[in-house]
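FAQ

Q: What does a record look like?
A: Structure on top, sequence underneath. For example:
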Protein backbone atom coordinates (compact mmCIF):
# COMPACT_ATOMS: atom_id res chain seq x y z
CA UNK A 1 0.00 0.00 0.00
CA UNK A 2 1.28 3.44 -0.92
CA UNK A 3 -0.29 6.87 -1.24
CA UNK A 4 -0.79 8.07 -4.84
CA UNK A 5 -0.14 4.58 -6.25
CA UNK A 6 -3.03 5.26 -8.64
CA UNK A 7 -1.15 8.17 -10.25
CA UNK A 8 0.83 7.23 -13.41
CA UNK A 9 4.60 6.96 -13.02
CA UNK A 10 5.48 9.92 -15.28
CA UNK A 11 3.23 12.21 -13.26
CA UNK A 12 4.67 10.95 -9.97
CA UNK A 13 8.20 11.66 -11.18
CA UNK A 14 7.16 15.13 -12.37
CA UNK A 15 5.40 16.10 -9.16
CA UNK A 16 7.66 14.69 -6.45
CA UNK A 17 11.15 15.49 -5.26
CA UNK A 18 10.79 12.52 -2.88
CA UNK A 19 8.20 9.91 -3.71
CA UNK A 20 5.86 8.38 -1.09
CA UNK A 21 7.04 5.13 0.51
CA UNK A 22 4.98 1.92 0.89
CA UNK A 23 3.46 1.39 4.32
CA UNK A 24 0.98 -1.47 4.07
CA UNK A 25 2.99 -4.04 6.02
CA UNK A 26 4.46 -1.72 8.65
CA UNK A 27 4.21 -2.45 12.37
CA UNK A 28 5.23 1.10 13.21
CA UNK A 29 2.11 2.45 14.92
CA UNK A 30 3.09 6.11 14.54
CA UNK A 31 3.80 5.66 10.84
CA UNK A 32 0.53 3.81 10.28
CA UNK A 33 -1.43 6.50 12.12
CA UNK A 34 0.05 9.22 9.92
CA UNK A 35 -0.69 7.07 6.85
CA UNK A 36 -4.44 7.16 7.52
CA UNK A 37 -4.75 10.44 5.65
CA UNK A 38 -8.34 11.00 4.57
CA UNK A 39 -10.50 8.29 6.16
CA UNK A 40 -13.65 7.59 4.16
CA UNK A 41 -16.75 6.24 5.89
CA UNK A 42 -19.11 3.85 4.12
CA UNK A 43 -22.35 2.34 5.52
CA UNK A 44 -22.18 -1.42 6.07
CA UNK A 45 -25.56 -1.65 4.34
CA UNK A 46 -24.28 -0.22 1.07
CA UNK A 47 -25.04 -2.57 -1.86
CA UNK A 48 -21.91 -4.01 -3.44
CA UNK A 49 -19.81 -3.12 -0.40
CA UNK A 50 -16.82 -5.25 -1.41
CA UNK A 51 -16.74 -3.81 -4.92
CA UNK A 52 -17.07 -0.27 -3.53
CA UNK A 53 -14.07 -0.72 -1.24
CA UNK A 54 -11.93 -2.16 -4.04
CA UNK A 55 -12.95 0.67 -6.37
CA UNK A 56 -12.02 3.27 -3.75
CA UNK A 57 -8.66 1.60 -3.20
CA UNK A 58 -7.94 1.85 -6.93
CA UNK A 59 -8.78 5.57 -6.81
CA UNK A 60 -6.32 6.38 -3.99
CA UNK A 61 -8.28 5.84 -0.77
CA UNK A 62 -5.96 4.34 1.84
CA UNK A 63 -8.21 4.11 4.90
CA UNK A 64 -11.92 3.36 5.22
CA UNK A 65 -14.43 2.75 7.99
CA UNK A 66 -17.30 0.31 7.55
CA UNK A 67 -20.00 2.00 9.60
CA UNK A 68 -22.41 0.11 11.83
CA UNK A 69 -23.42 3.14 13.89
CA UNK A 70 -25.09 6.35 12.69
CA UNK A 71 -25.28 5.31 9.05
CA UNK A 72 -27.29 2.14 9.80
CA UNK A 73 -30.94 2.08 10.87
CA UNK A 74 -31.73 -0.05 13.93
CA UNK A 75 -33.78 -2.57 11.98
CA UNK A 76 -30.89 -3.10 9.54
CA UNK A 77 -28.20 -3.68 12.17
CA UNK A 78 -28.16 -7.48 12.17
CA UNK A 79 -27.86 -7.59 8.39
CA UNK A 80 -25.18 -4.86 8.49
CA UNK A 81 -23.03 -6.87 10.90
CA UNK A 82 -23.21 -9.92 8.63
CA UNK A 83 -22.35 -7.84 5.58
CA UNK A 84 -19.38 -6.19 7.31
CA UNK A 85 -17.93 -9.55 8.35
CA UNK A 86 -18.60 -11.12 4.94
CA UNK A 87 -16.95 -8.20 3.16
CA UNK A 88 -13.82 -8.36 5.32
CA UNK A 89 -13.55 -12.11 4.77
CA UNK A 90 -14.03 -11.73 1.01
CA UNK A 91 -11.40 -8.99 0.72
CA UNK A 92 -8.89 -10.91 2.81
CA UNK A 93 -9.29 -14.02 0.68
CA UNK A 94 -9.01 -12.18 -2.64
CA UNK A 95 -6.25 -10.54 -4.66
CA UNK A 96 -7.71 -7.06 -5.20
CA UNK A 97 -6.17 -4.13 -3.26
CA UNK A 98 -8.03 -2.73 -0.27
CA UNK A 99 -7.33 0.12 2.16
CA UNK A 100 -6.71 0.00 5.89
CA UNK A 101 -10.14 -1.14 7.05
CA UNK A 102 -11.90 -0.44 10.34
CA UNK A 103 -15.38 -1.23 11.63
CA UNK A 104 -17.24 1.45 13.57
CA UNK A 105 -19.25 -0.45 16.15
CA UNK A 106 -22.12 0.67 18.37
CA UNK A 107 -20.96 -0.98 21.58
CA UNK A 108 -18.12 -3.13 22.97
CA UNK A 109 -20.08 -6.33 22.45
CA UNK A 110 -20.08 -5.79 18.69
CA UNK A 111 -16.27 -5.97 18.66
CA UNK A 112 -16.47 -9.53 19.96
CA UNK A 113 -19.33 -10.33 17.61
CA UNK A 114 -17.45 -9.19 14.50
CA UNK A 115 -14.30 -11.10 15.52
CA UNK A 116 -16.33 -14.25 16.17
CA UNK A 117 -18.11 -13.92 12.82
CA UNK A 118 -14.80 -13.56 11.01
CA UNK A 119 -13.12 -16.54 12.67
CA UNK A 120 -9.79 -17.00 10.91
CA UNK A 121 -10.67 -14.63 8.04
CA UNK A 122 -9.28 -11.47 9.66
CA UNK A 123 -6.49 -10.48 7.28
CA UNK A 124 -8.34 -7.42 5.97
CA UNK A 125 -9.32 -6.06 9.40
CA UNK A 126 -7.07 -3.28 10.70
CA UNK A 127 -9.18 -2.35 13.70
CA UNK A 128 -12.28 -0.79 15.21
CA UNK A 129 -13.66 2.70 15.70
CA UNK A 130 -15.25 3.36 19.10
CA UNK A 131 -17.96 6.08 18.96
CA UNK A 132 -18.92 8.35 21.87
CA UNK A 133 -15.85 7.23 23.78
CA UNK A 134 -15.88 8.57 27.34
CA UNK A 135 -15.34 7.45 30.92
CA UNK A 136 -18.63 5.53 30.97
CA UNK A 137 -17.60 3.09 28.22
CA UNK A 138 -13.86 3.50 27.61
CA UNK A 139 -12.70 0.61 29.79
CA UNK A 140 -15.26 -1.76 28.22
CA UNK A 141 -14.19 -0.83 24.71
CA UNK A 142 -10.51 -1.29 25.52
CA UNK A 143 -11.18 -4.62 27.25
CA UNK A 144 -13.05 -5.79 24.15
CA UNK A 145 -10.08 -4.72 22.02
CA UNK A 146 -7.66 -6.66 24.24
CA UNK A 147 -9.86 -9.73 23.95
CA UNK A 148 -10.00 -9.36 20.16
CA UNK A 149 -6.19 -9.17 19.93
CA UNK A 150 -5.80 -12.30 22.05
CA UNK A 151 -8.47 -14.11 20.05
CA UNK A 152 -6.83 -13.23 16.74
CA UNK A 153 -3.24 -13.66 17.87
CA UNK A 154 -2.24 -10.28 16.44
CA UNK A 155 -2.74 -6.57 17.01
CA UNK A 156 -5.91 -4.95 15.78
CA UNK A 157 -6.13 -1.25 16.57
CA UNK A 158 -8.73 0.88 18.28
CA UNK A 159 -9.61 4.43 17.29
CA UNK A 160 -11.79 6.15 19.90
CA UNK A 161 -14.03 9.01 18.77
CA UNK A 162 -14.26 11.87 21.26
CA UNK A 163 -17.69 13.44 20.86
CA UNK A 164 -19.91 12.78 23.89
CA UNK A 165 -21.65 15.50 25.95
CA UNK A 166 -19.64 14.61 29.06
CA UNK A 167 -16.52 15.59 27.14
CA UNK A 168 -18.06 18.72 25.65
CA UNK A 169 -19.52 20.13 28.86
CA UNK A 170 -17.06 22.41 30.58
CA UNK A 171 -17.85 21.12 34.09
CA UNK A 172 -16.88 17.52 33.29
CA UNK A 173 -14.33 17.91 30.48
CA UNK A 174 -11.12 17.82 32.52
CA UNK A 175 -12.24 14.73 34.42
CA UNK A 176 -13.17 13.02 31.15
CA UNK A 177 -9.91 13.87 29.41
CA UNK A 178 -7.83 12.86 32.42
CA UNK A 179 -9.61 9.50 32.60
CA UNK A 180 -9.40 8.93 28.85
CA UNK A 181 -5.70 9.82 28.78
CA UNK A 182 -4.97 7.37 31.60
CA UNK A 183 -6.87 4.52 29.97
CA UNK A 184 -5.45 5.11 26.48
CA UNK A 185 -1.91 5.30 27.86
CA UNK A 186 -2.37 1.87 29.47
CA UNK A 187 -3.32 0.48 26.03
CA UNK A 188 -0.99 2.65 23.95
CA UNK A 189 0.26 -0.12 21.62
CA UNK A 190 -3.30 -0.82 20.47
CA UNK A 191 -4.55 2.75 20.06
CA UNK A 192 -3.81 3.89 16.52
CA UNK A 193 -5.31 7.38 16.62
CA UNK A 194 -7.84 9.52 18.45
CA UNK A 195 -10.64 10.84 16.26
CA UNK A 196 -12.72 13.98 16.84
CA UNK A 197 -16.49 13.85 16.34
CA UNK A 198 -17.35 17.50 15.82
CA UNK A 199 -20.84 16.90 14.45
CA UNK A 200 -21.98 15.31 17.71
CA UNK A 201 -20.24 18.07 19.65
CA UNK A 202 -22.21 20.69 17.72
CA UNK A 203 -25.40 18.72 18.37
CA UNK A 204 -24.89 19.24 22.11
CA UNK A 205 -25.65 22.93 21.51
CA UNK A 206 -28.09 22.60 18.61
CA UNK A 207 -25.45 24.00 16.23
CA UNK A 208 -24.67 23.18 12.62
CA UNK A 209 -21.89 25.19 11.05
CA UNK A 210 -22.48 26.42 7.51
CA UNK A 211 -20.13 26.00 4.57
CA UNK A 212 -18.60 29.44 5.10
CA UNK A 213 -17.24 28.56 8.55
CA UNK A 214 -14.73 26.00 9.75
CA UNK A 215 -15.13 24.11 12.99
CA UNK A 216 -12.58 26.49 14.49
CA UNK A 217 -15.08 29.33 14.08
CA UNK A 218 -17.50 27.49 16.38
CA UNK A 219 -15.89 28.52 19.62
CA UNK A 220 -17.58 26.10 22.01
CA UNK A 221 -16.36 23.20 19.85
CA UNK A 222 -12.97 24.73 19.06
CA UNK A 223 -12.36 24.97 22.81
CA UNK A 224 -13.02 21.24 23.18
CA UNK A 225 -10.63 20.44 20.32
CA UNK A 226 -7.94 22.59 21.91
CA UNK A 227 -8.30 20.70 25.19
CA UNK A 228 -8.20 17.33 23.41
CA UNK A 229 -4.92 18.30 21.74
CA UNK A 230 -3.58 19.62 25.04
CA UNK A 231 -4.29 16.39 26.90
CA UNK A 232 -3.74 13.82 24.15
CA UNK A 233 -1.65 15.40 21.38
CA UNK A 234 1.60 16.23 23.15
CA UNK A 235 4.87 15.53 21.34
CA UNK A 236 6.79 14.37 24.42
CA UNK A 237 5.99 10.70 23.86
CA UNK A 238 2.83 10.75 25.95
CA UNK A 239 0.51 11.82 23.13
CA UNK A 240 -1.38 10.18 20.28
CA UNK A 241 -2.06 11.03 16.66
CA UNK A 242 -5.28 13.07 16.55
CA UNK A 243 -7.33 13.16 13.36
CA UNK A 244 -9.51 15.99 12.12
CA UNK A 245 -13.31 16.10 12.21
CA UNK A 246 -15.51 15.52 9.21
CA UNK A 247 -16.17 18.33 6.74
CA UNK A 248 -19.81 17.65 5.97
CA UNK A 249 -20.17 19.80 2.85
CA UNK A 250 -19.11 19.09 -0.72
CA UNK A 251 -17.55 22.56 -0.92
CA UNK A 252 -13.81 22.24 -1.61
CA UNK A 253 -12.82 25.74 -0.48
CA UNK A 254 -14.23 25.14 2.98
CA UNK A 255 -12.49 21.78 3.21
CA UNK A 256 -9.18 23.39 2.24
CA UNK A 257 -9.56 26.05 4.93
CA UNK A 258 -10.50 23.62 7.66
CA UNK A 259 -7.84 21.01 6.80
CA UNK A 260 -5.18 23.73 6.85
CA UNK A 261 -6.38 24.79 10.30
CA UNK A 262 -6.35 21.16 11.44
CA UNK A 263 -2.64 21.00 10.63
CA UNK A 264 -1.97 24.34 12.31
CA UNK A 265 -3.59 22.97 15.48
CA UNK A 266 -1.55 19.76 15.63
CA UNK A 267 -4.08 17.49 13.94
CA UNK A 268 -3.24 15.01 11.17
CA UNK A 269 -5.56 13.50 8.57
CA UNK A 270 -9.33 13.91 8.42
CA UNK A 271 -12.63 12.09 8.31
CA UNK A 272 -14.31 12.54 4.92
CA UNK A 273 -17.75 11.68 3.58
CA UNK A 274 -17.18 11.81 -0.18
CA UNK A 275 -14.45 10.19 -2.32
CA UNK A 276 -13.67 13.52 -4.03
CA UNK A 277 -12.56 14.92 -0.66
CA UNK A 278 -9.77 12.34 -0.38
CA UNK A 279 -7.65 13.95 -3.09
CA UNK A 280 -7.92 17.35 -1.39
CA UNK A 281 -6.78 16.08 2.01
CA UNK A 282 -3.96 14.03 0.50
CA UNK A 283 -2.73 16.92 -1.64
CA UNK A 284 -2.56 19.06 1.49
CA UNK A 285 -0.59 16.29 3.21
CA UNK A 286 2.26 16.43 0.69
CA UNK A 287 5.30 18.12 2.23
CA UNK A 288 6.62 21.17 0.41
CA UNK A 289 10.28 21.31 -0.57
CA UNK A 290 10.71 24.26 1.78
CA UNK A 291 9.28 22.34 4.74
CA UNK A 292 11.47 19.36 3.88
CA UNK A 293 14.62 21.47 3.64
CA UNK A 294 13.91 23.14 6.97
CA UNK A 295 13.17 19.80 8.68
CA UNK A 296 16.43 18.28 7.43
CA UNK A 297 18.40 21.30 8.63
CA UNK A 298 16.78 21.21 12.06
CA UNK A 299 17.40 17.51 12.57
CA UNK A 300 20.88 17.71 11.08
CA UNK A 301 22.44 19.01 14.28
CA UNK A 302 22.25 18.21 17.99
CA UNK A 303 24.00 21.42 18.95
CA UNK A 304 20.94 23.63 19.22
CA UNK A 305 21.13 27.26 18.22
CA UNK A 306 19.39 29.25 15.51
CA UNK A 307 20.04 29.47 11.78
CA UNK A 308 18.41 31.11 8.80
CA UNK A 309 16.36 28.84 6.58
CA UNK A 310 17.84 27.98 3.20
CA UNK A 311 14.87 29.92 1.82
CA UNK A 312 15.97 33.09 3.71
CA UNK A 313 12.46 33.84 4.91
CA UNK A 314 12.54 32.52 8.50
CA UNK A 315 14.76 31.42 11.38
CA UNK A 316 14.98 27.73 12.31
CA UNK A 317 15.40 27.15 16.04
CA UNK A 318 17.07 23.76 16.30
CA UNK A 319 15.64 22.58 19.63
CA UNK A 320 12.10 24.05 19.73
CA UNK A 321 11.38 22.99 16.14
CA UNK A 322 12.64 19.40 16.43
CA UNK A 323 9.22 17.88 17.16
CA UNK A 324 7.77 19.67 14.14
CA UNK A 325 10.69 18.49 12.00
CA UNK A 326 10.30 14.84 13.03
CA UNK A 327 6.59 14.92 12.25
CA UNK A 328 7.27 16.62 8.91
CA UNK A 329 9.77 13.96 7.86
CA UNK A 330 7.34 11.23 8.86
CA UNK A 331 4.72 12.87 6.64
CA UNK A 332 7.30 13.17 3.85
CA UNK A 333 7.89 9.42 3.92
CA UNK A 334 4.18 8.70 3.49
CA UNK A 335 2.91 11.52 1.26
CA UNK A 336 6.12 12.53 -0.47
CA UNK A 337 7.80 15.89 -1.03
CA UNK A 338 6.60 18.14 -3.84
CA UNK A 339 9.24 19.07 -6.38
CA UNK A 340 10.40 22.64 -6.78
CA UNK A 341 7.72 24.76 -8.44
CA UNK A 342 4.92 22.21 -7.85
CA UNK A 343 1.98 23.92 -6.14
CA UNK A 344 -1.03 22.63 -4.24
CA UNK A 345 -3.10 23.44 -7.33
CA UNK A 346 -0.80 21.28 -9.47
CA UNK A 347 -1.16 18.37 -7.05
CA UNK A 348 -4.92 18.67 -6.78
CA UNK A 349 -5.39 18.90 -10.52
CA UNK A 350 -3.57 15.60 -11.06
CA UNK A 351 -5.05 13.80 -8.07
CA UNK A 352 -8.65 14.83 -8.72
CA UNK A 353 -8.41 13.75 -12.36
CA UNK A 354 -7.27 10.20 -11.54
Amino acid sequence: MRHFRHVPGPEIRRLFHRQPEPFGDTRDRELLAMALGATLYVPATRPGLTETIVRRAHSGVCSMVIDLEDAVADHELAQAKRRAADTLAELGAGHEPYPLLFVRVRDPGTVREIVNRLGADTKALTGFVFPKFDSSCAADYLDALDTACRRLGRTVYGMPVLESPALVHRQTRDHELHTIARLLTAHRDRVLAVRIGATDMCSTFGIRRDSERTIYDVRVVADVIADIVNYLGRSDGSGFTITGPVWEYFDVDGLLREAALDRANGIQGKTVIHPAQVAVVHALSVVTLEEYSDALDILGTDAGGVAASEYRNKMNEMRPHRSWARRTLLRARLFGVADRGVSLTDLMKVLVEQ
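Q: Is there anything notable about this one?
A: The chain is about 45% helix and 15% strand.
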